Every structure is written in C-alpha cells, then in structure tokens.
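Entry 14: structure prediction run for 4-dihydromethyltrisporate dehydrogenase. Input pasted below.
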Amino acid sequence: MAVDYLTLDRTGDKMPLRGFGCWKIEKKDAENTIYQAIKIGYRLFDGACDYGNEVEVGRGINKAIKEGLVKREELFIVTKLWNTFHSKQHVRTAFDRQLKDWGLEYFDLYLIHFPIPLQYVDPAVSYPPEWYVPHADKLNFERSPIHECWAEMEKLVQAKLTRNIGVANFNCQAILDLLSYSKIKPAVLQIEIHPLLPQERLVKWVQEQGIQVTAYSSFGPTSYVDLCESGKTYSSLLANADVKSIANKHNVNTGQILLRYALDRNIAVIPKSVHEDRMKSNLDILNIQLDQDDRKILNSLKTNQRFNDPMIFGFGLPLFD
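Run finished. Output tokens:
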C-alpha cells in the first residue's frame, strides 16, 4: 500500500494524507456524519471555530471513541483560531472554549485560520463571530501582530494542549516573517489547491522549509456555488470533460482524480461529504496511479482562479495580491 501519511517535522507525528473536512456540515447532521466517517475509516478531521459545528463534530468523535470504534490516539484532530481572537489576551481563552466544545484533552494540530487580526468580538455577543463586528458593514482590524499571536500558539504546545501548530491562508511573505521569530515553526500550511489553482511555487518553497501542506477546496468551485458569483459561473471541476476522461480511463469518479492529484504532490486532502458512497470513494484513492499524460492534462487546467478570497466575498481585503 502507498504511504498514507505525512511526517510532521518537529514531533514526528504522522498526519494522515486523507482527511475529512467539517466545513458546511449542518449542526443537525454533524454528529452522525462524523460518526459514520470514522466507521468508514477516516482518521483526520479538520474543523474550525468559524464552521459553527465544533460541539456537534466533537459529539460524533466522542461517540465513536466511547463505543470502541477508534482510540483517541488513532485520530488526528485539526481546528483553527478565528480572526477575532488574535490578541495575546484572547488566544488561550478561545482555544480553551474550542477544546471544551470538542470534548477533548488535546488537539493534534491548531492553525491560525487567516493572517487577519479582526477586532475582538465577545463570544457572549456572537459566536462564532464571523467577519464583521455586529452591526458593522466593513472589516474592523485590531493591532494584534502575528508575532504576539504566534507566541501564544507556542504556549499551547508547551502546555501540551496541542501537539502541533500551523497556519492557513498565509502567503510566502507572511510565512517568511513568521519563520524569522518563531521558536516553534509551523508544522503545516493549509491553502486552497486544485488544478485551477495549483500554487506550485508556494507549495514547493513551503515543503522545502520542512512545512507540510494540506489542500482545501480540492474540487474547485463546488463549495462556493452559494457563496460567490464565481462559484456559480465557473465550470465545475467534477464535471470537467478532461477530468472525466481521466476518471473513465482509471474507472473511478472525477472527485477521486482531483484528490489523487494532490496526493501525488505530497499534499494532504480534506474533502467533505454527507453521503456515505461519496465518503467511501473520497477515501478510496490510495491505489489510483496517475501517469504523465494524466498529470499533463490536469496541469493544463491552471487558470489561477481562487474561490476563497476576501475580495470575492466583498470584504475589500486583497489578501492574496
């Protein structure tokens, strides 16, 4: 069997290449969806404060542990610090709430969700706080530098509350700055990656720094149809004729090809589905062997179209420019 994990640099922890994303899972479905995913064989679960379902996802995990389907140490649990909690006085409080919501004693990986320090919102007022301060119509930033936020992240490792820390949606400059002062370098970078947006140069450089990469939105516009105009108008990669031809050639579905595309680059994937058949097929990608012609076709799809972009959502923040 092909290697099914990435080894994290500092701890040597083995992070599964095939994980399960918790974004956009309805609260009413989350507990059972996660429970079923564990039964099917998923061992990495990727969540976030902003997803608004951490309590329910945690219930699914703890149900599976209680019933003996899996041991805690066999799972790799990832979640993220939201933008409104970057201040050095709020990181630990936000983390503690998330750990309690999941019903766990530690996380395997804790990420800074975006390099965007937004004005603090009291959880008693709004939780998850999302992007805007209540009643505001524009983003409100606060003076919470990443170096202070990262120092608090490192304290979580030192307290043995999370085994690893990392970042999401950081570009090269933000990571380069972080590496200049971090005592514990990020173990993982999580970014949007699919054939339309392969981000080859960033991935190559990050991996050279000993930082592993996780891809989100492996299916391109699929998750953004209800969120932005480009999600509605851009052709689905799952229905793309070239991807279909490769899938037919290997007798698999298009989703499996798109996930295998990332694995071939030593990039972990975190697809989400509430449908059991799709859960199984998204996991069944280890033995697919793409050849040079397949990769050439997939590489030709590059347009640099990004879907998870604050500019697209009307926030007026050119984060990736």
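Notes: The chain has one domain: 10-299. Will compare against the previous run tomorrow.
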